[in-house]
Write a sequence for this structure.
């Protein structure tokens, strides 16, 4: 009954360091998403993936890369972390079959601080 | 360009009364709308949704209303309970081949006992 699992839950990075946030879902969903949540800004879409091997930019993709390794996993990479990337990151997944009328399921989030 | 807007950052309501949370959107291609609830240190959880072919959807204490001509939706919670204190996000999705799910900025609801 895991749903969407994100690792790590917390991370502190120094400016310029790199890291990868991992996300896995066990619901056989085809679409996966990465969002960041900042005070007053809501949930902003960074990247999304409609299926294995495909990714698309969202509203705030700069400074990030993603990889849809397989149907289950969707990772988010920060190549050179900046303080502006301090945020809470959420991964989500949903079943999408040509119509948008399904809900997305979210992970517990990763709280990232860049110092 | 914020396509989904929640203009009230916060709302306080007495326990037992009605809570009304509002959401406006600008993209006329949106045709499925969702509300999510988020507690601190947790991921958002799905609450209720509505398709553009309807103007109302009800689930227990929660009702969502959609006014397509005004590009406006609202979430009504009746009666409000202390456990409803959370941040509520409105989200919207297009149909036919666009997987993006766009969220608003959220409204923090506080239920006063």
């Amino acid at each position: 009954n895991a749903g969407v699992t994100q690792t790590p839950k917390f991370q502190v990075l120094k400016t310029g360091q790199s890291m990868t946030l991992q996300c896995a879902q066990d619901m056989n969903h085809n679409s996966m998403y990465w969002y960041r949540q900042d005070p007053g800004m809501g949930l902003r879409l960074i990247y999304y993936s409609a299926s294995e091997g495909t990714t698309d930019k969202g509203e705030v993709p700069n400074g990030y890369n993603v990889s849809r390794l397989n149907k289950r996993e969707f990772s988010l990479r920060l190549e050179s972390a900046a303080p502006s990337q301090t945020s809470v990151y959420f991964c989500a997944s949903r079943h999408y079959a040509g119509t948008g009328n399904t809900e997305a399921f979210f992970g517990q989030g990763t709280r990232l601080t860049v110092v | 360009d914020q396509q989904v807007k929640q203009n009230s950052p916060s709302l306080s309501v007495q326990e037992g009364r009605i809570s009304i949370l509002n959401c406006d959107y600008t993209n006329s291609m949106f045709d499925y709308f969702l509300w999510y609830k988020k507690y601190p240190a947790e991921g958002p959880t799905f609450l209720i949704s509505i398709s553009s072919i309807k103007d109302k959807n009800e689930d227990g204490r929660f009702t969502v209303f959609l006014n397509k001509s005004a590009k406006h939706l609202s979430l009504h919670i009746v009666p409000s309970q202390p456990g409803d204190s959370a941040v509520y996000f409105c989200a919207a999705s297009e149909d036919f081949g666009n997987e993006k799910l766009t969220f608003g900025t959220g409204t923090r609801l506080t239920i006063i006992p």
